[in-house]
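Forgive a beginner's question, but would it be possible to get a protein, spelled out as residues, together with the matching structure tokens, please?
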Amino acid sequence: MKNSVESREEDANVSSSFRRLPDEIILQIFNKLIDLKTLCFCHLISKHFSSIVLQIEAISFTAPLLNPHISDKNTVSDVSPSQPFLSAHRFLSKFKGVKFLWIELPSSSHRDIDDRLLFRWKAKFCSRMKSFIFLSPHSIFDKDGFCINGNGEEEEEEEDELRNDMLNQKLVISFQCFRDAMVWHSILLYLVKDLPKLEKVSITDLGRRGKLSLSGEKLIEVKEWVHSASEAVMTHLELPTKISNGYIPVLKLPVSGYVMKGIHFCVMKMKDLGDGNDGVMNNEDASADKEEAAYTEAVMEILEKHTT
């Protein structure tokens, strides 16, 4: 009992000492935390801390996987890709001064597929989703001919039926990724509307296979749009008016020197797309690694030479 009392007194003394710090110092400490869950705990300590926490400028949020005990046999239709984020949105919307926001969400397409399967998706969007591309190579080789990802062995001759089954599987995954992209885009719109000082926001999946981000002039354009658009317009979903898919045995990438083999791809475009073939590309982060840069180059090659 004595030890318990002493422990509580010690905790109270530490808390009291911390609270005597100037608010500016406490805010600097909170700005180092950035994790939304940790900030939530700090927010609950006291009204004083609550008012300081809500002044931070950068937040990172990684959503937990939905019910890890669910069998892999369940289909992706059991889960909405926005569900892990909804519980956090109400708290997040209180941070009216936040400028930088990074969010990682589970992807609906990742739960029932082999983690070794290679694929990426990219999208062109602003206030509306404009276009989307999915590509899935069998393997990737660097400029020296070394396999850096996937199956390094040459693809064996496959019967048409087996190849078609693989194509159908990847088409299903591509539509699941497109569903994620549409949901994430909707989330971005509401974040921009709720957080007036936002300067950069990014949403990706836990496997970093897809990403949507807004900053700079594009973010300013979206801010103007969301504050003038009605709820019905904001929630309206644009469906693809043109879908093309195909298979490329070998794709050589002249800029990076990489080679991708056995690529399945799917391109979806919405109506009124006036951007030409670069309509499925947003500006990529300068920090993208070599493999990610190779995917970006592959997208451009496919759009220029393998789609109509």
About this structure: The CA atoms of residues 74 and 98 lie 37 Å apart. Confidence is low (pLDDT under 50) at residues 5-14, 67-79. The two ends are 78 Å apart (CA to CA).
